[in-house]
Structure formats: C-alpha cells, structure tokens
Amino acid sequence: MSSSTQPAAPAAPVVPAFAAHDVVVSYDRRPVVRGVSFEIAPGETVAVMGPNGSGKSTLTRALLGLVPLTSGRVSICGTPLRRFRDWARIGYVPQRLSVGGGVPATVREVVASGRINRRRRFRPASARDRAAVSDALAAVGLLDRADDSVYGLSGGQQQRVLIARALAGEPDIFVMDEPMAGVDAANQQALARTLEALSQRGATVLLVLHELGPLQPLIGRALTLDNGTLVGDGAPHSPEGDCAAPGHDHVHPHADADRRPSALPVVEVPRSA
Ligand SMILES: Nc1ncnc2c1ncn2[C@@H]1O[C@H](COP(=O)(O)OP(=O)(O)OP(=O)(O)O)[C@@H](O)[C@H]1O
C-alpha cells in the first residue's frame, strides 16, 4: 500500500510554556491572587497588566516558584512546578536589582551570573560563555560599563543589567517584571527591538507592564488583573484618556530611577527544589 494513501498523523498537542490553574496566592492569609487560570503557548508574547497592587508581580513570581501557591496548580513546559528543574530555559527579570550583603559586583559579574545554569560545573567560563555575556551587555548598551560597580548605576541602568543577565543565559522563556521601568526612551526602544528579535526567534515572553509603550506592536495578548482576579484575557486596549497623556497618574515604582542610584541589589533566582 502506498504511503500517500495513509491518513496524516494527528498533530502533537502544543504543550503550554506556562499553565496556571485556579492559582491562589496569599500573604499573611490575605489572598492577593484569587483563582487565576490561563495558558501561555510557546512563542507567545503576553503582558500582565492591571492597577498597582492588583497582584501582577505576585502572580509572575508564583509561576516561577518564588512565592508559594496557597492552592491551585502551575506547570512549566508541561512539568508541574515542584518537579521543574530546567531553569536554564527561563530568564527572569525581577522588578529591581538587589545584590545582597554588600558584595562588590561589577556589571559584567552580575550579567555573567545569568550564565550559571548553562555552564559546566567547576569549569572556567568558555569562549561561548564570555561571548554570550558580551552580546547581552551590547544588547542593552552597557558594554562600556562592564567593569563598573553595579552600585554606582542608576535604577534604569540596573534594570538593563537585569535584562542582560537574563539574555546571557540564552533562555527560550523570558519572564520580565516591568522591564521598562525607569529606563529612558532611547533604551526602551532598543529593548523593544531586542524583545522583537527574541520573539521572532520563537522565544516565549511574559511581561508585567504598566503601559505598553514601545512594546505595543509586540503585545497581542494581555492578561488583566484587578484586585487579584483575572478580569481580562485578550487583545490589549490601546492607551486612551489619562493613560495616553504624558505624565498620567499611574504610580511607577521606578519613575525617577534613571536619575539616581537605587538601593543595594540582591540576586533573585528561582528556587531549585
Ligand atoms: N511580600 C509581601 N508581603 C505582604 N504583602 C505583599 C507582599 N508583596 C506584595 N504584597 C501585597 O500584595 C498585593 C499585590 O502586590 P503585587 O506587588 O503583586 O501587585 P502588583 O500588581 O505587581 O503591584 P505594582 O504594580 O505596584 O508592582 C499588594 O496589596 C501588596 O501590597
């Protein structure tokens, strides 16, 4: 029998990059994420939006096991969160850089720490490791600051260090908590181009955003939270009214960050167990 007469094999089901099912997260028994469910397909670029305090950061941190679930389920690439170990696939950009304990760290050292999950244990950095770090620094426009202390950088520059740290690990899934906060307009445009290139290469990108800004063309889907509840899942609304106006009144934690050095940094990594 000719193979051309055989029916085509059914397409394999797409395993979501993230699946959240009825996720509840509480602080001091107060639920701040309340029964949220969604799936994010591989290669999607999705924004998490909503007012201050609506639970955006908590939800994204819970997806990575950085805060415990009160109830519900999360899986990453089809693996339940508690069993997920492939952290090299994930680049996380927290809301702010915090490198604890007053340990001196240069920009290059912090960015190179994003490579740890890719490096072979007890081996010195390879040429590929060094190239990945330099490429990441170049992508965020900080090559010329590579040997400076991160403590002397402005908040917006530190934000770019965090993005470079995530890029250096060459992950295929990015989770970024307000990556544009405090970053000046020119560097926001550059970061938008970097994210577009990552997206075109098939990366999955989940971003907490207060506003779409230069990322607007990239964002086809927004999850909107209000008081911990998912109240929207679909095409994002274009900014209008007060939000479209310059100087609108959202509270931005890093609004003046590019103008002053920020607090002492602590490196956050997803828990490994
Ligand atoms: N570590 C914590 N301990 C106790 N409460 C917290 C903690 N972190 C956040 N919260 C509270 O949980 C709620 C949700 O906070 P979260 O930071 O997740 O919201 P958000 O939407 O990301 O806010 P923002 O836009 O201001 O960053 C808020 O009421 C906040 O005060």
UniProtKB/TrEMBL annotation:
Name the Pfam families on file: ABC_tran
Q: Where is the ABC transporter domain?
A: 18-252
Q: Which CDD domains match?
A: ABC_Metallic_Cations
Q: Which UniProt keywords apply?
A: ATP-binding, Nucleotide-binding, Transport
Q: Which Gene3D superfamilies match?
A: P-loop containing nucleotide triphosphate hydrolases
Disordered: region residues: 230-273
GO molecular function terms listed in the Swiss-Prot or TrEMBL record = ATP binding; ATP hydrolysis activity
Q: Which SMART domains match?
A: AAA
Extent of Basic and acidic residues compositional bias: 247-261
Q: Does the keyword Transmembrane helix apply?
A: no
Q: Which SUPFAM superfamilies does the record match to this protein?
A: P-loop containing nucleoside triphosphate hydrolases
InterPro entries, A to Z: AAA+_ATPase, ABC_transporter-like_ATP-bd, ABC_transporter-like_CS, Metal_Ion_Import_ABC, P-loop_NTPase
Tell me its family.
Belongs to the ABC transporter superfamily.
- Protein's UniProt name: ABC transporter ATP-binding protein
> What organism, scientifically named, is this protein from?
Thermobifida cellulosilytica TB100
- Lineage, broadest ranks: Bacteria, Bacillati, Actinomycetota, Actinomycetes, Streptosporangiales
